[in-house]
Design a protein that fits this description.
Number of domains: 2
Shape: globular
Structural class: alpha/beta
Helix content: 25-40%
Radius of gyration: 20 Å
CATH architecture of the largest domain: Alpha-Beta Barrel
CATH topology of the largest domain: TIM Barrel
Strand order of the largest sheet: 4-14-13-12-11-10-6-5
Largest sheet: 8 strands, parallel
Distance between the termini: 39 Å
């Protein structure tokens, strides 16, 4: 079976699709939101809670795990799945985005990137080969190519240079990848907000016939309208028989827009980050549980939500926990938020299967 992706249904009015994707650690039903577990942990949640939330695939971070505890320790533990006791599929990013965010303390050239560890100040060199070596040791089901992610607002010439370098680095990743039968290497389409650069980048990646493709560089500071246009333009350029992953996106509207363009997979830190700040995602809205209006509200946060939080606790209790800065409050909100975004993509999947995607989710689309 390998990494077989099968499209099960398509929307008759948009490019939305529902599929199932086979990986060594189980199937992923798409479209699907993937929680982010940066340091081999989705902040505040146990693997059992993640499973109860409907998580099928989660992320971990190459850059952070290389710095602490080091891929050698994780490899000795039997790989990421064993180390963190997660039975389902895992995706590791390449470290490229973190290096981009460290622009003040890095030096970038054709070989790779040299930077100071934000943890202990030592010099670290990350290259396409090193990224592959780390990710091969971590043992995730999906590993990402090392790319250069330019920030929004730089010149077209700089975006072009970064996009071309990303392609050269991808070819080095393909060559260095030691476990292709066990780990699917995804290429990343860069190109900023320029359709011509996106088109050329997508074509050159497709020619390499990779197991899957990602669209990168769309959550680095651009206007949402531009993001939607770029995703709408780029997604159809990628092969129909391979999974398509939009990196770093996880709000309701952005996911619906992307699914309508033919995207299958998403990841974002939003649900746990909001949870740690006392905010809940409820039926498309953001609720600040610190607000006085919840003090004497003894209803569940969302009666229709099957999560442990909504089934067992009131808004008043959550308000009390958040106001008291109790850890349990942040855990319960994180669990609900992860469940909410996964349920949201599951509901979209069901709507695509019944061909009523536009009818049920069209109100999220800017074109409707």
């Amino acid at each position: 079976m390998g990494f077989l992706f099968q499209c099960q249904a398509s929307c008759s009015q948009t490019k939305a699709r529902a599929g199932v994707w086979n990986t060594p650690h189980g199937c992923v039903e798409t479209p699907r939101f993937m929680p982010v577990g940066t340091l081999a942990t989705v902040k505040g949640l146990t693997p059992e809670q993640l499973e109860s939330a409907g998580s099928q695939m989660i992320l971990a971070n190459t850059f952070h795990l290389h710095i602490q505890p080091g891929e050698g320790i994780i490899q000795k533990a039997g790989g990421l799945h064993q180390f963190m006791n997660w039975r389902g599929p895992i995706l590791t990013d390449s470290g490229g985005f973190q290096v981009f965010s460290l622009s003040q303390i890095r030096e970038l050239n054709e070989t790779g990137v040299t930077f100071r560890s934000p943890r202990d100040g030592r010099m670290i060199e990350l290259t396409p080969e090193k990224s592959m070596e780390i990710q091969n040791a971590l043992g995730a089901d999906v590993i990402m190519a090392f790319d250069e992610c330019p920030p929004a607002g730089v010149s077209k010439a700089e975006i072009l240079a970064a996009t071309e370098r990303t392609y050269r680095w991808l070819k080095r990743c393909v060559k260095a990848h030691q476990r292709p039968s066990e780990q699917a290497l995804f290429g990343i389409v860069q190109g900023g907000v320029y359709p011509d650069l996106r088109k050329d980048a997508a074509q050159s990646l497709v020619d390499l016939d990779l197991p899957g493709y990602a669209i990168g560089g769309v959550s680095v500071g651009e206007e949402p309208k531009l993001i939607h246009e770029i995703v709408r333009f780029t997604a159809p350029l990628l092969p129909e028989e391979k999974p398509r992953y939009l990196m770093g996106v996880g709000t309701y509207r952005e996911m619906v827009e992307a699914i309508a363009a033919g995207i299958d997979l998403f990841d974002c830190v939003i649900p746990t980050r909001l949870g740690r700040h006392g905010t809940a995602l409820v039926k498309g809205e953001r609720w600040n549980l610190k607000n006085a209006r919840f003090k004497e509200d003894f209803l569940p946060m969302d009666e229709s939500c099957p999560c442990y939080t909504c089934q067992n606790f009131s808004r008043a209790y959550l308000n009390h926990l958040v106001r008291s800065q109790e850890m349990l409050g942040y855990i319960l909100l994180s669990l609900h938020n992860v469940t909410e975004l996964i349920r949201f993509t599951q509901n979209i999947r069901e709507a695509i299967m019944k061909d009523c995607f536009l009818e049920k989710f069209g109100h999220w689309l800017s074109s409707h």
